[in-house]
Specification:
Blueprint: H1 13-19, H2 30-38, H3 42-52, H4 55-60, H5 64-92, H6 99-103, H7 106-114, E1 122-123, H8 126-139, H9 157-181, H10 193-215, H11 228-234, H12 242-264, H13 275-290, H14 292-295, H15 315-344, H16 350-366, E2 373-374, H17 376-384, H18 391-407, H19 416-425, H20 428-431, H21 436-443, H22 445-461, H23 463-483, E3 488-493, E4 499-501, E5 508-509, E6 514-518, H24 528-534, H25 540-560, H26 586-589, E7 621-625, H27 634-649, E8 653-657, H28 661-669, E9 682-683, H29 686-696, E10 706-707
Helix pairs in contact: 5-8, 5-17, 5-18, 5-19, 7-16, 7-18, 8-9, 8-15, 9-15, 9-16, 10-19, 10-22, 10-23, 12-13, 12-19, 21-22, 22-23
Domain STAS: 504-693
Membrane topology: Multi-pass membrane protein
Protein name: Solute carrier family 26 member 3
C-alpha cells in the first residue's frame, strides 16, 4: 500500500495567516458591475448577436456534405410524426384537430432562428395540450353558455375555443419571453426530475381518460374540477360506438407491437418504422371507402380552418393558468434539450431557450396555434434518424405546411378515434414512470413522497394545482433536509489523521473528554437552534446557572461561618438536582462564574459541601467540523456566538476547524470575536485541533481507549 509522510507545524488559522502571506483580491463594486453590464463594444455586440440568434453559430460550422442528407431524412421522418401528433394532441386541447398543424409549423420556424438546441422537435406536447384544454373547457364548456367575453360575439363554439387557446398561448409566450429577458432561466432548477416525473405520470392518466371519449365514440361534457377525471370514466359509457372501439383497439395493438420492434431492433433499422403514419393512412382510406362518418356515425377530422389573430380580452381570465403552463413547457423542453446537448457535446442557454419559446408561442398564437414545447418521442425520432441541426426541424415544418395547404383534404375522413388511439399508445413512456416509486422508496423516501404527492394531487386537483402542491412539498423537503440534517460525532481512525463517524468503524480512538461534532449543512436562522441542542448533549446555560446558584449558596455559608475551607471544594453529581429558591437577578446567573472572593477554586466534577448538586460536565473540549458549512446568516452568527459563550463559561474549550475563508471574513467583519470568543479557536484541520488538545490535556496511555462498534 502506498504511503506518504508530511512534516509540518501545527496550525491554527491565526498561525497559518501569520506565516503565509495572502493575496489581496479587489472585489468589484455594484457600480462596476452596472457599468460593465451597460458597456458596449464591437466584440460584445457580436457576442450578443450570436447569443440572440444562435443559428448563426452552428450555420457557420455546418458540414454540408456530411450533415445535409441526414437532416433531410430526419426532417421528413419527424414531419410525418409531427403531422399525426399535431392532429392528435389538438383533441387534448379540446380543439378541432387541424389546429395542431399550426402548432407544428409556426413555432418551429421561430425556434429555428432563436433556439440553442439542435435536436429537439418543437410543437405540441401532450401535458401542455391538456392544460390548454382545461382552460378552453372552463371558458367555453361543451354544455351551457361560454363565459361572458365581448370577443366571443358572432363566433361559433369552435372559434371561441380556438380564440381562448390562442390567447392563453400568447400570454404564456409573453411570460416566457419576459423571464428570458430578465435572465431567470434558473427557475427550472426548482422542478426536480422526481417532481416532473410524478407530474407527467399524472398528466398521462388525465390524457388517457380524456381520450377514452374518442376511443369509445362518446359525447362527454368537458368537465373542470377536482373529480372530473373520475366522472369522465363512468359517464355515458353505455353509449359506446362499437366501430370506434374496434378501430381504436386494432390501431393500438398494431402500433404497440411495431413500436416494440422499433425499440428492440433500433440498432439495425436505418429509420424507425413510421407505424403511426402508416396506420393513419390506412384508417383514413378505410374510413373514406366505407363512409364511416355517415354509416357508423364516426366523428372525423373535417376541414382545415383558416388562422385568425388572438383576442386580448381573454388575458385576465387565463393569467393564473398561463404561468404554470409557461413553467411546465419550458421545464420539459429544457430537460430534453439538456439530454441531447450532453450527448452531442454542445452548450444550451436556459435564458435563450425561454426567449425562443416565448417568441415561438407569441407568433404562433397570432396564427391560432396553441401552446408549443417539445415531446420526447418526436425529438427522439429527429435525433435517432440522424438529425444534426434544426434544419431537420425546418424541413419537418415544410412537411406540415405541405399537408396543411396541399394534401390535407385527404385526411378529412380520418376518424378521431384513430388519433385517440395513437395518443394512448404514445403514453407508454410516461405511464411506465410509476416503476420509479419502489426504487425511490428504497433509496430516498423524501423524494418518493414528492413523487407520490405530486402525482396524486395532479390527478385529483388538476394539473395546475397539482404542480403547485408538488412544488410546495418539494420545497418543504429541502427545508426539512437543511433544517434537520444528519449530524454525526467523529472519531479518529487509529494510526491516521483521518476522522470518520464513530458509529461506522471499529478501530477508532476517542480521547476522554473530547467530542468532535460534524455540521453537515449551512447554518442559518431555521437550524441554528437545532444544532445548539445537538452539540454536547446538555444545556450549558442551565449548567452555568446551576453553578452560579451554587456559588451564591457557598458564599452565604462562608459568610455565616457554617462552612470551613480546608482544601479545594469538591462536588458530587448524584440524585435529583434541587432548584435554588433565590431566582432573583437572573442576568447575573448567565455571567461567567466568578471565584475572586473565594479562597479556592471550585472543582465542579467533585463532591460539593452542604448537598449542593450541579450537573456534571464530562466534556472539556469540543471540536466543530465546519468543512460542510457553506454560509452563515446573521441570525445563525448571533446564535453561534451565544452557544460558544455558554460552552466557554462552563469550561468547555471550543475549536472550529476547516472553516471556509468567506465565513472567516464575515465573522471578522461582523465583529464576532471578543474577550471570550477568540479567533485562536479556529484551526486549519481536525488533526491540528486534536493535537493541540492532546498537548493541552495529556492522556495517559492506560486511559486511552479504542471503542468497538456495538
Amino acid at each position: 500500500m502506498k504511503q506518504y509522510v508530511v512534516a509540518r507545524p501545527l496550525y491554527s488559522e491565526d498561525a497559518f495567516t501569520d506565516e503565509h502571506e495572502k493575496i489581496h483580491r479587489h472585489h468589484k463594486t455594484l457600480r462596476h458591475h452596472v457599468k460593465q453590464y451597460f458597456t458596449c463594444d464591437l466584440k460584445r455586440a457580436k457576442n450578443a448577436a450570436l447569443s440572440l440568434l444562435p443559428f448563426i453559430g452552428w450555420m457557420r460550422i455546418y458540414q454540408l456534405k456530411e450533415w445535409l442528407l441526414s437532416d433531410i431524412v430526419s426532417g421528413v421522418s419527424t414531419g410525418l410524426v409531427a403531422v399525426l401528433q399535431g392532429l392528435a394532441y389538438s383533441l387534448l386541447a379540446s380543439l378541432p384537430p387541424w389546429y395542431g398543424l399550426f402548432t407544428a409549423f409556426f413555432p418551429v420556424i421561430i425556434y429555428f432562428f432563436l433556439g440553442t438546441s439542435r435536436h429537439i422537435s418543437v410543437g405540441a406536447f401532450p401535458v401542455l395540450s391538456l392544460m390548454v384544454g382545461a382552460v378552453v373547457t372552463r371558458l367555453v364548456p361543451d354544455e351551457g353558455p361560454p363565459v361572458n367575453i365581448t370577443g366571443f360575439e358572432g363566433l361559433t363554439s369552435d372559434e371561441q375555443r380556438v380564440m381562448v387557446a390562442a390567447s392563453v398561448t400568447f400570454l404564456m409566450g409573453i411570460m416566457q419571453l419576459a423571464m428570458g429577458l430578465l435572465q431567470v432561466g434558473f427557475i427550472v432548477m426548482y422542478l426536480s426530475d422526481t417532481l416532473v416525473s410524478g407530474f407527467t405520470t399524472a398528466a398521462a392518466i388525465h390524457i388517457l381518460v380524456s381520450q377514452l371519449k374518442f376511443v369509445l365514440g362518446l359525447v362527454v361534457p368537458g368537465l373542470s374540477g377536482p373529480l372530473s377525471i373520475i366522472y369522465k370514466i363512468f359517464v355515458q359509457i353505455e353509449k359506446t360506438n362499437v366501430c370506434d372501439l374496434v378501430t381504436s383497439i386494432l390501431i393500438m395493438v398494431v402500433v404497440f407491437i411495431v413500436k416494440e420492434i422499433n425499440d428492440r431492433y433500433k440498432a439495425k433499422l436505418p429509420v424507425p418504422i413510421p407505424i403511426e403514419v402508416i396506420m393513419t393512412v390506412i384508417a383514413c382510406g378505410v374510413s373514406y371507402a366505407f363512409n364511416f362518418r355517415v354509416i357508423y356515425k364516426v366523428d372525423v377530422v373535417g376541414r382545415i380552418p383558416s388562422p385568425m389573430a388572438p383576442n386580448m380580452q381573454i388575458f385576465g381570465q387565463t393569467a393564473v393558468e398561463a404561468f404554470p403552463m409557461a413553467i411546465v413547457g419550458f421545464a420539459v423542453a429544457f430537460s430534453v434539450a439538456k439530454v441531447y446537448s450532453v450527448k452531442h457535446d454542445y452548450i444550451i442557454d436556459g435564458n435563450q431557450e425561454l426567449i425562443a419559446f416565448g417568441a415561438s408561442n407569441i407568433i404562433g398564437a397570432a396564427f391560432k396555434s396553441f401552446a408549443a414545447s417539445t415531446a420526447l418521442s418526436r425529438s427522439a425520432v429527429q435525433e435517432s434518424t440522424g438529425g444534426k441541426t434544426q434544419i431537420a426541424g425546418l424541413l419537418s415544418a415544410l412537411i406540415v405546411m405541405v399537408v396543411t395547404l396541399a394534401i390535407g383534404f385527404l385526411l378529412e375522413p380520418l376518424p378521431k378515434s384513430v388519433l385517440g388511439a395513437v395518443v394512448i399508445v404514445n403514453l407508454k413512456g410516461m405511464l411506465m414512470q410509476i416503476r420509479e416509486v419502489p426504487y425511490l422508496w428504497r433509496r430516498d423516501r423524501p423524494d418518493c413522497v414528492v413523487w407520490v404527492v405530486t402525482c396524486l394531487a395532479s390527478i385529483l386537483l388538476g394539473l395546475d394545482l397539482g404542480l403547485a402542491v408538488g412544488l410546495g412539498i418539494e420545497l418543504l423537503t429541502v427545508v426539512f433536509r437543511a433544517q434537520f440534517p444528519r449530524c454525526s460525532v467523529l472519531a479518529n481512525i487509529t494510526g491516521t489523521d483521518i476522522y470518520k463517524d464513530r458509529k461506522d468503524y471499529m478501530s477508532i480512538y476517542e480521547p476522554e473528554g473530547v467530542k468532535i461534532f460534524r455540521i453537515p449543512s449551512p447554518i442559518f436562522f431555521a437550524n441554528i437552534d437545532f444544532f445548539r441542542g445537538k452539540l454536547v448533549g446538555f444545556n450549558p446555560l442551565r449548567v452555568l446557572r446551576k453553578r452560579n446558584k451554587a456559588l451564591r449558596t457557598i458564599r452565604k455559608l462562608l459568610k455565616k461561618g457554617e462552612l470551613q475551607m480546608t482544601s479545594v471544594i469538591s462536588f458530587k453529581c448524584s440524585g435529583p438536582i434541587e432548584e435554588s429558591e433565590d431566582e432573583s437577578n437572573m442576568e447575573e446567573l448567565d455571567q461567567p462564574t466568578d471565584f475572586k472572593d473565594l479562597p479556592v477554586q471550585v472543582n465542579w466534577n467533585s463532591e460539593l459541601p452542604a448537598n449542593i448538586q450541579v450537573p456534571r460536565v464530562d466534556v472539556h473540549s469540543l471540536i466543530l467540523d465546519f468543512s460542510a458549512v457553506s454560509f452563515l446568516d446573521i441570525s445563525a452568527l448571533k446564535g453561534l456566538k451565544a452557544a460558544l459563550k455558554e460552552l466557554i463559561r462552563v469550561e468547555v474549550e471550543v475549536y472550529i476547524v476547516a472553516c471556509d475563508e468567506y465565513i472567516l471574513e464575515k465573522l471578522h467583519s461582523c465583529k464576532f470575536f471578543d474577550d471570550e470568543v477568540k479567533s485562536s479557536m479556529f484551526f486549519l484541520t481536525l488533526h491540528d485541533a486534536m493535537l493541540h488538545i492532546l498537548e493541552k490535556h495529556p492522556v495517559n496511555s492506560e486511559n486511552t481507549k479504542v471503542c468497538e462498534k456495538v
